[in-house]
Design a protein that fits this description.
CATH class of the largest domain in chain A: Alpha Beta
Protein name (chain A): Pyrroline-5-carboxylate reductase
Strand content of chain A: 5-15%
Subcellular location (chain A): Mitochondrion
Helix content of chain A: 55-70%
EC number (chain A): 1.5.1.2
CATH topology of the largest domain in chain B: Rossmann fold
Largest interface: A-B, 16 and 14 residues
Number of strands of chain A: 7
CATH superfamily of the largest domain in chain B: NAD(P)-binding Rossmann-like Domain
Family (chain A): Belongs to the pyrroline-5-carboxylate reductase family.
Strand content of chain B: 5-15%
GO molecular function (chain A): pyrroline-5-carboxylate reductase activity
Distance between the termini of chain A: 19 Å
Oligomer: heterodimer
Number of domains of chain B: 2
């Protein structure tokens, strides 16, 4: 998006074999294996590790956190208060912002929300918003809504991919080649979403506009309704939101000794399947950044 | 549109209009109540026929005149409503056919009998219209659609619309919409009664007395319908307006969606419409 120069971004990961690491290097991002180095050379620090690892990362980098740092956590289910609590042993007034985004930031059509912690100023929030708005939609919310956001737009792309796969199947069943079916399905959803975002009209009205009396579309919609399409989507958002809360609850309860942590951390990184490692590392590549204050 | 001249003639004709009803059942009764309430036609200008006095008593109480002779209704009326049961109509048409002339406007309320059939059984050139009302015409909150036959013109359509708007919503449509109207609104009234009953039952389950629950259920439906009609907003928008985030309404709506209520209602309208089509073919 051209918001930050690559050389101002530093990313760190214990595992340097990951494909995302070389991808980052090619972009011109500074890479290091030391999380501490990342902290020292950054003003805005994105924590983009898996949620169970957050407490250990905080332990590790805590001593290096200074008042200027804005700590942004993207970890699902990790509360601002839990991060502030961890950091307060090192820094009296840590600036913490919690954010929830989604994968389409990759194509700059992300959906991001953030909630500011006790010591984060309005300008800190605005800075994050500026950064994240360059990769999609970004707005501030109350922290207690973040689980709902996870259920809707966090998991949302997965619902869309599932729908697109099925729509393509429908196209193939009716005679379309697969590639064309996928392309058309994706474009249909993209176009519909764009229409909705640019229109003042209610989606129900936009739907009506497509349904000519006795026509093809209304017949198809009847099938969707019969299958409880709407309730399935409501169920999905609800389930994802509830699970997020569950995971957060579980995380709050877990206690592991620091010595065991370091070992399991490395073990986890090595043992995880390649796709999973790529996922966590890709978060590192996207989010660990450094910006010089004006 | 309707020519200005036609409207002028309509205004003149209404007060001089002699209105007849062949068949005096509930639907006919609803229409006449609407007409009389709105002062469209004086009761003394109305003549209704029926085989027995059972229904006719109520008509006389309204000030209408009654008879057991269908032919008399046709001789003494300009606007003749046919309101018999479907299986009786062919016989009635054969009976009154000799008395039907070019001055008559024949309007059929009979379910499932097409304009084609009516025109076949009446003298050639007869002005025929077909109307499908619904029960709330009885309380002047009906929904009616009508279509015109080959010889009915703008004047007749304007007259009918003007008269029947006193009973509720009245719109001219292509004849193919009439069966759909049956599925939507003719039978639709029953769907609403079912829904109202279920709403009240839910309330009773939660501890409210039945009579109160029923009244509130009815008022809720009335109020919601009124808002729909008066705001002109899309129902989805109005629905959204009621749903506060995480509130009671959205929880309830989720239950309705789980039960695929929308699809079930669509199925109902479809079933009634198809049945109307099938019955018309018989």
């Amino acid at each position: 998006a051209g918001v930050l120069a690559a050389h101002k971004i530093t990313a760190s990961s214990p595992d340097t074999d990951l494909p995302t690491v070389s991808g980052l290097r090619k972009m011109g991002v500074n890479f290091t294996v030391s999380n501490k180095d990342t902290v020292k050379s950054s003003d805005v620090l994105f924590l983009a590790v898996k949620p169970p690892i957050i407490p250990f990362i905080l332990e590790e980098v805590g001593p290096d956190i200074e008042p200027r740092h804005i700590v942004v956590s993207c970890a699902a289910g990790v509360t601002i208060s839990s991060i502030e609590k961890k950091l307060s042993t090192f820094c009296p007034t840590p600036k913490v912002i919690r954010c929830m985004t989604n994968t389409p930031v990759i194509v700059r059509e992300g959906a991001t929300v953030y909630a500011t912690g006790t010591h984060a100023d309005v300008e800190d929030g605005k800075l994050l918003e500026q950064l994240m708005a360059s990769v999609g939609f970004c707005t501030e919310v109350e922290e207690d809504l973040i689980d709902a956001v996870t259920g809707l737009s966090g998991s949302g792309p997965a619902y869309a991919f599932t729908a697109l796969d099925a729509l393509a199947d429908g196209g193939v069943k009716m005679g379309l080649p697969r590639r064309l079916a996928v392309r058309l399905g994706a474009q249909a959803l993209l176009g519909a979403a764009k229409m909705l975002l640019e229109s003042e009209q209610h989606p129900g009205q936009l739907k009506d506009n497509v349904c000519s009396p006795g026509g093809a579309t209304i017949h198809a919609l009847h099938f969707l309704e019969s299958g409880g399409f709407r309730s399935l989507l409501i169920n999905a958002v609800e389930a994802s939101c509830i699970r997020t809360r569950e995971l957060q609850h579980l995380a709050d309860q877990e206690e592991i000794s620091p010595a065991a942590i370091k070992k399991t951390l490395l073990d986890k990184v090595k043992l995880e399947s390649p796709s999973l490692s790529v996922a966590s590392a890709s978060k590192v590549s996207l989010f660990t950044s450094k910006s010089k204050k004006n | 549109g309707v020519a200005l001249g036609a409207w002028h003639r309509v205004a003149m004709e209404e007060s001089e209009l002699w209105v007849g009803f062949v068949g005096a059942g509930r639907m006919a009764g609803g229409l006449v109540r609407g007409l009389l309430q709105a002062g469209k036609v004086p009761a003394s200008n109305v003549l209704a026929s029926a085989p027995s006095d059972k229904n006719l008593d109520a008509w006389r109480e309204l000030g209408c005149r009654t008879t057991h002779c269908n032919l008399e209704v046709v001789y003494r009326s300009t606007l003749v409503f046919l309101a018999t049961k479907p299986h009786i109509l062919p016989g009635v048409l054969e009976e009154i056919r000799p008395a039907v002339g070019s001055q008559h406007i024949v309007v059929s309320l009979v379910a499932g009998v097409t304009i084609q059939t009516l025109q076949r059984l009446l003298p050639p050139g007869t002005k025929v219209l077909r109307i499908m009302p619904n029960l709330p015409c009885v309380v002047q909150a009906g929904a009616m659609v009508f279509s015109r036959g080959s010889n009915a013109g703008d004047e007749e359509a304007a007259l009918l619309k003007s008269l029947l708007s006193s009973c509720g919503l009245c719109e001219e449509v292509p004849e193919s919409y009439i069966d759909i109207h049956t599925g939507l609104s003719g039978s639709g009234v029953a769907y609403v009664y079912l829904f109202a009953e279920a709403l009240a039952e839910g309330a009773v389950k939660m501890g409210m007395p039945g009579a109160l629950a029923s009244r509130i259920a009815a008022q809720t439906l009335l109020g919601a319908a009124k808002m729909l009609l008066e705001t002109g907003e899309h129902p989805a928008k109005l629905r959204g307006d009621v749903c506060t985030p995480g509130g009671t309404t959205i929880y309830a709506l989720h239950q309705l969606e789980k039960g695929a209520l929308r699809a079930t209602v669509m199925d109902a309208v479809e079933a009634a419409t198809n049945r109307a089509c099938d019955m018309a073919k018989d």
